């Protein structure tokens, strides 16, 4: 007999619908049934047929009953079939025994031993949890033994008494007694084998549970370590953000002092006191460069220690001492080994040499206007030094502007004095007409020359101010994009991001494995309804080319299922779809999404990005998105959005073999964001040396606008009532929002309409609440800046003469320029007022 056939017999009745404790009893029960059939029923059929044919029906019934029990097992009647198999053998043996005994005879001992051996069968057939059935079967078996005297009277054999006695004698003392006891032992062994199988199964199950518990414990420990590592990285990011916030607050305080009406030494004292207090230095001095008759001196203009002004006078020549050396080198000098006797910090406890000395040149456009010197008992941190260098740039700008303003003020006073003198001589000039005419012509020439000089000086002053503003904004924008490039590389190396790519990639391609056709059809219908009723109507409000739902519906089953779960069936409104952490479909993807999505969303909200994406670097499939727009789960290489700037930047990262490759792509209208301008920056995600995915940030437009508008505080930034700073791309289209669009939108749009802008473009500006990529700025200043030139220019823009300062932006991968502008009428207002006196 083949082993496969034996296995099929032993596993009859096993199916997933049985309770676990019953499932464990199937094979042991089949083993005992098979043993009873082979060791008792079949042998006694042969013995009875030879010695007592009248009783052969009893073992035959037992054999067929056993076969019937197997059939009942296969048909699902496991419970009652076991009850029959647990009790019937005892009853059959006792009835067989009753037939062979007369009313006054004792039972045949060998058969009685077989009956007792069968009492183990119920313990194999039933689990202790089935107390009712176990007790019932034991009671029925015991009842068969107890009722034996009654059974002797009930079952009487009509055969020859002599033949019966001979057969009984064989069963009692002959060879059949040994055979019968042997068969009883085999029956007991069969039951014991069944119990051993049950015990072995229980032992294996216990071992498996123990291994699973140990595995769960290891996973929990691994998860704990990973969480602690993620927390440490987030804390490091928070520390960097706190340092940037600290520097921004310091620059805001400095700007507030510089915008005040203090002049000269008062301004230097106020700035120095604020800086010493803010960086917690112990003392410091501010040296300003003075050029008297061609001789350059570096003079101490402010000195503070322990929050008190010190009155000292010091002057250095270029190259003299550390101050003169810092001026000549035009670079920061940071010393922790202070020369003996150079400086002491004095307090009520005595004198002490500071631990560090910091000298920073106050320079703008490579021109040094002074030196800031600070001494402290503690070492300055890198972010403090960076803040002080930026503060010194602002101070250099102030010093330049202050000097120009002082010259302008002096010339204005001279002009007023000359005007008074001219009016004093007016009566005398009237006495001689010819002399008056000549004098008037001379005065006119002097007035013209004087006001030309004033106008030029005023332009120089305004251009210097605009240059300072342009330079500061330029540095801030370039620094912000450097931060983003470093941040995306750092985040791509984060263990959480690497594990998220791995788990989401595995779950992404099996998202539909447990879905029925009906469930998939329902998802397609809900998604089609979302596109038809929500996405497409809103999209058509932002474009002049009406779209249909069929144009944008995803074509892959993965995109269909995931967009249905996280967009169409997501109860959060559009714009808030990211609030859903877990879709209740029970899939591996949703479990992974619930684990990583809160961390990714927290990172996005903390740093202000529009969206964050994870891409499969092998296929181009979007595995994950925080914001959940209609590009979610689509393929960016072969799908609908492959030709967008998003698809292009993903292809470039896929083709790169550089582990530290970062690519920024310029703004373009993006359909999933309702044609809003979208820019993306992307880098690869590596596990060790294997590229497994792509990390993409959708750039935050609002952050760029905040830097350029100073949070809409143009006047405080020194841009007056009409000035602004904005970015323009190589296509001459604006990359940041315009001031007039914010402050006086109706006039702004009316002006564009007069310039010939199409009605659809103006409508899109109103609807999208931005002019990015919609307004073109065709200025000579823009053309020069795009050629790599920095400078100033006066030209006409929107029917107004404007003063422009411009410079190219050094941001990798994009050709942008920055320009600051102010109306000439506002810039020359003080000169024009004087001319009209």
Unreliable segments (pLDDT under 50, ≥5 consecutive)? none
Helix content: 55-70%
Count of DSSP H/I helices: 29
Overall residue-averaged pLDDT value: 83
Helix and strand composition category? alpha+beta
Task: Estimate the strand proportion.
Answer: 5-15%
Number-wise, the strands total 18
Whole-angstrom Rg: 48 Å
N-end to C-end Cα span: 126 Å
Taking the sheet with the most strands, its summary is:
7 strands, antiparallel
Shape: elongated
How would you explain this protein's 3D organization?
With 837 residues, the protein is an alpha+beta fold. Helices cover 58% and strands 15% of the residues. A hairpin with a 2-residue loop joins strand 13 and strand 14 (690-698). The longest helix is centred in the N-terminal third of the chain and has 84 residues, at 175-258. The chain is elongated and about 180 Å long. The termini are far apart.
């Amino acid at each position: 007999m083949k082993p496969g056939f034996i296995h099929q017999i032993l596993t009859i009745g096993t199916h997933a619908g049985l309770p676990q404790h019953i499932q464990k009893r199937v094979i042991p029960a089949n083993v005992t049934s098979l043993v009873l059939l082979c060791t008792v029923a079949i042998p006694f059929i042969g013995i009875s047929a030879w010695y007592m044919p009248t009783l052969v029906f009893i073992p035959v019934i037992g054999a067929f009953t056993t076969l019937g029990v197997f059939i009942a097992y296969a048909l699902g009647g496991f419970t009652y079939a076991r009850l029959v198999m647990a009790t019937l053998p005892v009853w059959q043996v006792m009835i067989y025994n009753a037939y062979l005994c007369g009313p006054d005879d004792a039972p045949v001992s060998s058969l009685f031993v077989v009956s007792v051996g069968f009492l183990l069968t119920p313990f194999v057939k039933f689990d202790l949890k089935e107390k009712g059935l176990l007790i019932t079967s034991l009671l029925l078996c015991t009842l068969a033994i107890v009722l034996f005297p009654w059974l002797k009277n009930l079952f009487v054999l009509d055969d020859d008494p002599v033949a019966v006695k001979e057969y009984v004698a064989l069963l009692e003392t002959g060879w059949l007694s040994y055979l019968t006891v042997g068969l009883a032992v085999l029956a007991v062994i069969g039951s014991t084998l069944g119990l051993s199988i049950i015990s072995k199964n229980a032992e294996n199950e216990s071992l498996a549970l123990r291994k699973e518990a140990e595995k769960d414990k290891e996973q929990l420990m691994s998860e704990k370590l990973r969480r602690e590592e993620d927390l440490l990285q987030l804390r490091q990011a928070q520390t960097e953000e706190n340092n940037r916030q600290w520097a921004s607050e310091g620059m805001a305080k400095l700007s507030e002092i510089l915008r005040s009406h203090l002049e000269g030494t008062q301004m230097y004292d106020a700035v120095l006191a604020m800086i010493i207090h803010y960086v917690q230095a112990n003392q410091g001095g501010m040296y300003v460069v003075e050029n008297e008759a061609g001789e350059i001196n570096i003079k101490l203009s402010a000195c503070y220690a322990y929050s008190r002004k010190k009155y000292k006078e010091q002057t250095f020549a270029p190259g003299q001492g550390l101050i003169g050396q810092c001026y000549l080198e035009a670079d920061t000098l940071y010393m922790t080994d202070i020369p003996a006797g150079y400086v002491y910090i004095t307090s009520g406890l005595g004198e002490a040499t500071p631990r560090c000395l910091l000298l920073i040149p106050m320079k703008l456009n490579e021109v040094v206007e002074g030196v800031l010197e600070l001494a402290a008992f503690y070492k300055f941190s890198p972010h403090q030094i960076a803040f002080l260098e930026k503060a010194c740039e602002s101070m250099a700008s102030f010093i330049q502007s202050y000097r120009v303003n002082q010259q302008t003020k002096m010339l204005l006073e001279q002009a007023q004095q000359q005007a008074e003198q001219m009016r004093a001589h007016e009566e005398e000039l009237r006495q001689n007409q010819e002399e008056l005419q000549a004098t008037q012509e001379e005065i006119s020439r002097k007035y013209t020359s004087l006001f030309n000089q004033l106008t030029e000086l005023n332009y120089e002053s305004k251009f210097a101010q605009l240059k300072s503003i342009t330079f500061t904004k330029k540095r801030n924008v370039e620094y912000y994009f450097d931060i983003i490039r470093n941040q995306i590389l750092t985040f791509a190396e984060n263990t959480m991001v690497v594990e998220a790519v791995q788990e989401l990639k595995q779950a992404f391609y099996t998202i539909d494995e447990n879905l029925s056709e009906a469930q998939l059809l329902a998802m397609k219908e809900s998604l089609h309804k979302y596109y038809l009723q929500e996405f497409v109507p809103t999209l058509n409000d932002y474009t002049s080319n009406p779209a249909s739902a069929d144009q944008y519906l995803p074509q892959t089953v993965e995109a269909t299922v995931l967009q249905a779960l996280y967009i169409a069936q997501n109860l959060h409104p559009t714009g808030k779809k990211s609030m859903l952490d877990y879709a209740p479909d029970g899939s591996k993807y949703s479990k992974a999404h619930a684990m990583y999505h809160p961390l990714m969303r927290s990172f996005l909200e903390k740093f202000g990005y529009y969206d964050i994406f994870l891409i499969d670097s092998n296929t181009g499939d979007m595995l994950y998105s925080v914001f959940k727009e209609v590009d979610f789960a689509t393929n960016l290489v072969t799908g609908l959005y492959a030709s967008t700037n998003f698809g292009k930047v993903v292809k470039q990262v896929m083709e790169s073999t550089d582990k530290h490759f970062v690519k920024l792509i310029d703004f373009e209208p993006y359909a999933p964001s309702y044609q809003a301008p979208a820019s993306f920056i992307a880098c690869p995600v590596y596990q060790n040396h294997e590229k497994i995915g792509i990390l993409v940030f959708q750039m935050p437009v609002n952050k760029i606008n905040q830097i350029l508008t100073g949070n809409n505080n143009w006047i405080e930034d020194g841009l007056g009532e009409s000035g602004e700073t904005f970015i323009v791309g190589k296509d001459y289209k604006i990359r940041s929002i315009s001031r007039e669009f914010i402050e006086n939108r109706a006039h702004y749009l009316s002006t564009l309409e007069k310039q010939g802008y199409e009605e659809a473009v103006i409508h899109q500006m109103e609807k999208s609440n931005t002019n990015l990529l919609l307004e073109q700025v065709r200025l000579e200043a823009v053309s020069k800046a795009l050629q790599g030139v920095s400078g100033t220019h006066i030209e006409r823009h929107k029917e107004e003469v404007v003063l422009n300062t411009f410079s190219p932006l050094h941001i990798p991968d994009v050709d942008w320029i920055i320009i600051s502008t102010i109306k000439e009428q506002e810039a020359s207002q003080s000169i024009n007022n004087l001319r009209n006196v």
